[in-house]
Design a protein that fits this description.
Strands 1, 2, 10, 11, 12, 13, 14, 15, 16, 17, 18, 20, 21 and 22 form a 14-stranded mixed beta sheet that branches. It is built from 16 helices and 27 strands. Helix content is about 30%, strand content about 25%. Among the domains are: about 180 residues, Rossmann fold, CATH 3.40.50; about 80 residues, Luciferase, Domain 3 (Luciferase, domain 3); about 100 residues, GMP Synthetase, Chain A, domain 3 (2-Layer Sandwich), CATH 3.30.300. The protein starts with a helix and ends with a helix. With about 525 residues, it is α/β, with parallel strands linked by helices.
C-alpha cells in the first residue's frame, strides 16, 4: 500500500466496508458498496482504452457518480480532471483541450454544451452521460457503462505515491490552470491522514486509525468540482467517517440535510456560502444541535458574517483556514482575525511556511518588512501545460529549497504569526497608496443593505487607478453610493474608499464562491463610462 488515494480507499473498504462512506440526497453508499461501484466504472474506462497517465474529465453536479469517477480514474492510474459546470462552450473548449482529457463523465443537463464542444476536441473519445439521454455521439448511459462490469480489482495496475492528481483552479482572473500534485504530497498537504496531529508515518496507520475510530458525519457544502470539497471528502474517509453532500448548493437544503443526517461538521467557502446559510438559519426553524464545527476554506469569512454565524450557532466553533490549491492546508486564523481588523494566521506545526523577500530570503520576524507568503515541503509540483507559470510560481532559493510563492503579501510577527494583507496581483495602487480589496470588501459587507461586494481597481487619469466596488444589494433594499461612501469613510482611510460603485442584481462568482475580478473590473468600468 502506498500514500495513494486509491490504495488507501481500497484499504478502508476492506477494513470498514459496512460503514456509510457517502450520502447525497436519498443515496447512501457504504465503503464496500462505493468500492464495487468505482471498480465497475474503472473497468469500463479500461475497456474504452483509458490508460495510466491519461486524463478523465468530470463535469457533474455533486453525487456518488462524481466521487466514483475520481476513484475509478485513480484506480487505473489515470488522472481525474474537474470541469467547471458553469462554463460556456468557449470555456469548455479551452479546458477540454488544455487538460488533454480523453474521456468525460457529464451530467445530461450539460448535453447541449458537451455536444457542441466535444467534436472539436480530437483527443476526447469516450463519454459517459449521467442522469438522462444524450445526443453526444458515442455517449454511454452511466448505468449501462457499469452494467456487467467486474466489481473486483483484477487487472488494475500497481500504483505509486508519485501518481498524479490534477485540480483545475479558476482563481480570480484569466482561464483556469491545472495544479499538478503527486498523491503522496497531496495526502500530506491536507492533514496527512491525521488533521489533529502528526501525519501518519505509513499507509497502514490510516486504515488502523479509521478502524478504531468512532465514525462521525461530516459535510461539504462546496461543489466537488472545487478542490476543497474533494479534499474534505478524503479527510472524512481517512477518519473512517461519512461525507455528506447536497447535489447543488442551496442554503435551505444544506440546513435540512444537517438536521436530517445529524451532521457534526460542515465546510463552506467564505461569505458566498456562509451569508445565505446565516440568513436561512435566521428565517427558518432547524434543529442544528448536532453541528459542532463550521469551517471555511478557499475563501475568507468577513468579521460581520462570522459574528452573525456565532450568534446563530452559539454552541458551534467557527474556523477559518489559510491555504490554496497549490499549497494545501497551511495555517489557521487566530482569535480576532478578519479582513476588517487584519488577517492573522498561525502556521500549522507541520507546515514549512515563511514570508520571503525578493531575494527569496525569510524576512525577520517583527521587522515590519512586507514579503510574499511561501511554502516548502509538501506542495504541488507545477501547472499542467504551463511551464512559464510553473517557473514563476515554484522557485528554488540559493540553498536549494524549492518554494511555492502563494502571491499573498504579508508580514511575520515576532511570535511567528503571519499578518496577511491580500493578493499582490489584486492590490490597487492609487496615487502610490496600496489598497487591498479584501479589507474594503469586508467593510462594505458590514453595511446592512449590502449582500455581497467585490472591490477592484479601474484606470484613473489622475491617480493611475481608482478603487471601485461592485455591489449586490440585499433583497428589498436600495443603497446609494452616498450611503456606502459615508459608511466606508467612518471605517477606512480616505484613499481606500471606493470612488465608483456599480450595482448589480446578482454577483458573478465561481461555484466555490471565489470572486471574479475580471468581470468586476469590466462591470465597474462600464458603470464609470
Amino acid at each position: 500500500m502506498e500514500f495513494n488515494h486509491a490504495d488507501l480507499f481500497e484499504g478502508l473498504a476492506d477494513a470498514i466496508g459496512d460503514r456509510v462512506a457517502v450520502i447525497c440526497g436519498e443515496t447512501r453508499m457504504t465503503y464496500a458498496g462505493l468500492e464495487a461501484h468505482a471498480n465497475r466504472l474503472a473497468h469500463f474506462l479500461l475497456a474504452e482504452g483509458v490508460r495510466p497517465g491519461q486524463h478523465v474529465g468530470i463535469q457533474l453536479y455533486n453525487g456518488v457518480q462524481y466521487i466514483a469517477g475520481i476513484l475509478a480514474a485513480l484506480k487505473i492510474r489515470a488522472v481525474p480532471v474537474n470541469v467547471n459546470y458553469r462554463y460556456v462552450k468557449s470555456e469548455l473548449f479551452y479546458l477540454y483541450t488544455d487538460s488533454d482529457i480523453v474521456a468525460l463523465l457529464f451530467d445530461a443537463e450539460f448535453d447541449d454544451e458537451v455536444a457542441a464542444t466535444a467534436p472539436r476536441c480530437p483527443k476526447l473519445k469516450a463519454f459517459v452521460a449521467v442522469g438522462g439521454p444524450s445526443r453526444v455521439q458515442g455517449a454511454v448511459p452511466y448505468d449501462e457503462a457499469l452494467a456487467g462490469r467486474p466489481d473486483g480489482r483484477e487487472g488494475f495496475p500497481e500504483r505509486s505515491g508519485d501518481d498524479v492528481y490534477i485540480i483545475y483552479t479558476g482563481g480570480t482572473t484569466g482561464m483556469p490552470k491545472g495544479v499538478m500534485w503527486r498523491t503522496r504530497d497531496l495526502f500530506m498537504a491536507f492533514g496527512g491522514g491525521n488533521p489533529y496531529g502528526e501525519p501518519r508515518s505509513r499507509p497502514g496507520e490510516v486504515i488502523e486509525a479509521a478502524r478504531g475510530s468512532a465514525p462521525i458525519i461530516m459535510m461539504s457544502a462546496a461543489p466537488l468540482m472545487h478542490g476543497a470539497a474533494q479534499m474534505a471528502t478524503f479527510i472524512a474517509w481517512w477518519m473512517g467517517s461519512t461525507i455528506v453532500y447536497t447535489r447543488r448548493f442551496d442554503a435551505a437544503e444544506v440546513l435540512r440535510t444537517i438536521e436530517r443526517e445529524k451532521v457534526l461538521s460542515i465546510n463552506v467557502t467564505g461569505d458566498a456560502m456562509a451569508r445565505p446559510i446565516a440568513d436561512e438559519i435566521a428565517a427558518g426553524a432547524y434543529d442544528l444541535s448536532s453541528l459542532v464545527v463550521l469551517s471555511s476554506t478557499g475563501a475568507i469569512l468577513t468579521g460581520a458574517v462570522r459574528e452573525r454565524l456565532q450568534e446563530l450557532l452559539p454552541n458551534a466553533m467557527i474556523t477559518d483556514s489559510f491555504g490554496s490549491t497549490e499549497s494545501g492546508f497551511t495555517a489557521s486564523a487566530v482569535a480576532g482575525s478578519s479582513p476588517e481588523s487584519g488577517l492573522k494566521y498561525q502556521p500549522n506545526a507541520t507546515s514549512t511556511l515563511a514570508v520571503l523577500n525578493d531575494a527569496l530570503e525569510p524576512v525577520k520576524p517583527g521587522s515590519g518588512e512586507l514579503g510574499t507568503v511561501a511554502k516548502a515541503g509538501d506542495i504541488a509540483f507545477g501547472y499542467y501545460n504551463d511551464p512559464d507559470k510553473t517557473a514563476r510560481t515554484f522557485v528554488t532559493d540559493a540553498g536549494g529549497t524549492r518554494w511555492l510563492l502563494t502571491g499573498d503579501l504579508a508580514r511575520i510577527e515576532e511570535d511567528g504569526t503571519i499578518l496577511v494583507f491580500g493578493r499582490g496581483s489584486q492590490c490597487v495602487n492609487t496615487g502610490g497608496e496600496k489598497v487591498f480589496p479584501e479589507e474594503v470588501e469586508a467593510v462594505l459587507k458590514g453595511h446592512p443593505a449590502v449582500f455581497d461586494a467585490v472591490v477592484t481597481g479601474i484606470p484613473d487619469e489622475r491617480w493611475g487607478s481608482r478603487v471601485a466596488a461592485v455591489i449586490e444589494p440585499r433583497e428589498g433594499t436600495k443603497p446609494t453610493a452616498e450611503d456606502l461612501d459615508g459608511h466606508c469613510r467612518e471605517r477606512l482611510s480616505g484613499y481606500k474608499v471606493p470612488r465608483t460603485y456599480a450595482f448589480v442584481d446578482r454577483m458573478v462568482r465561481s461555484p466555490a464562491g471565489k470572486a471574479d475580478y475580471r468581470w468586476a473590473k469590466e462591470t465597474a468600468q462600464a458603470a464609470l463610462s
